[in-house]
Amino acid sequence: MLRITKPLCQHHIQTAIIGAGVIGLAVSRALSKKGHEVLLLEQATSIGSETSSRNSEVIHAGIYYDRNIMPYKSKFCVEGKQLLYQYCIERDVPFKQCGKLLVATDADQRDSGLPKLVEYAKGNGVHDLKIVSMEDIKDPYSDVYEPNVKCTGAVYSPSTGIIDSHSFMQSMLAEAEEHGTTLALNCRVEGGRSAGPNVILTVDGEEMVCDNVIVCAGLHSHKIASDILSQSNQQSSVSKQNEARIPRQYYAKGNYFTLQNQKQPFSRLVYPLPDPRGGLGVHATIDLSGSTKFGPDVEWIVDVVINPYDIDMNVDPHRAKSFYAAIRKYWPDLNDDNLVADYSGIRPKLWHPSQ
């Protein structure tokens, strides 16, 4: 690992990647394996400390994405799932293909919602879903046995799983570094501009000339890309219409609560049907140690131009009230006072429910 210094900043870099989360690491790995010179810039003291470590650590089957609006996201989720499982096996990254139940909690969801979900998933290329009854779920000899789940029926997704995200990121970093990637921690990109065929980045007050710049900065991607484009437009008198290339960004905060003082209730993931307001509802996720956490909920950050550094990442304990209500729809035996505020994450979005 390397801390950027002034002599390094004077060098000509072939490819600079901004952000050492899971996306930046994956891009670094792929490019360095193809022989590219890669400098991976990360403002924090460690890799993957923001969005990449503040999520549910789920390997999704590819069920939900609207293929008409996000055709590549639905396509790559299905293909990426298989590649990710294969990668975990080859690189000894801890994972478990535990499966997931998407539960209906009333007759309408059972009779209408579940079949629609299965057909929707088929259109995305997910053909292994099956509708199961409450009797199946309560049958100790079935492959969907979950005695603590209350529902009117469910869809079972056998290819959904969980992963140790930190081990995954460390594995990709090791592989990238094996092929020549240089990681620079504590390096904040403060701006940049185009200069002919190159991009000049300002990193901690120093300038660096790059052939290519790839922004993988998560919550900060919008600002960094906008700043670079804005400075480039000012330098070259390019029409401001070019700024439309950077879409508007919204932030959806998701809060998590962990189960305490009660036996772990599930052996697989348990999800309600998708929340029309955004997100997948307050679901139950197990980790590789067997612990259970619930979340995320959806808390839209009202100020759409807010600086990501100013977002309060603490979980408001008072939100537990809505969690109890949501969880008890499919697990009524949850005891009072057994949820403890854990962590939160921010999902960068290109849309808002008001649109």
Write the layout of secondary structure elements.
Layout: H1 6-9, E1 12-18, H2 22-33, E2 38-41, E3 58-59, H3 71-91, E4 95-96, E5 100-104, H4 107-123, E6 130-132, H5 134-138, E7 153-157, E8 161-163, H6 165-178, E9 182-184, E10 189-195, E11 198-203, E12 206-215, H7 221-236, E13 250-259, E14 269-272, E15 283-286, E16 292-295, E17 299-300, H8 320-327, E18 339-349
Parallel strand pairs: 1-2, 1-12, 2-9, 5-14
Antiparallel strand pairs: 3-8, 4-8, 5-7, 6-7, 10-11, 11-12, 13-16, 13-17, 13-18, 15-16
Helix pairs in contact: 2-6
Fold and architecture overview:
Residues 16-348 form the FAD dependent oxidoreductase domain. Pfam families: DAO. By secondary structure, the chain is an alpha+beta fold. It folds into two domains: 6-53 and 166-245, 3-Layer(bba) Sandwich (FAD/NAD(P)-binding domain); 97-161 and 249-349, D-Amino Acid Oxidase, Chain A, domain 2. It has helices spanning 6-9, 22-33, 71-91, 107-123, 134-138, 165-178, 221-236, 320-327; strands at 12-18, 38-41, 58-59, 95-96, 100-104, 130-132, 153-157, 161-163, 182-184, 189-195, 198-203, 206-215, 250-259, 269-272, 283-286, 292-295, 299-300, 339-349. The strands form four sheets. The chain has a six-stranded mixed sheet. Strands 13, 15, 16, 17 and 18 form a five-stranded antiparallel sheet that branches. It has a four-stranded mixed sheet with strand order 6-7-5-14. β1 (12-18), α2 and β2 form a beta-alpha-beta unit. The chain is elongated. The model has no long low-confidence stretch (mean pLDDT 90).
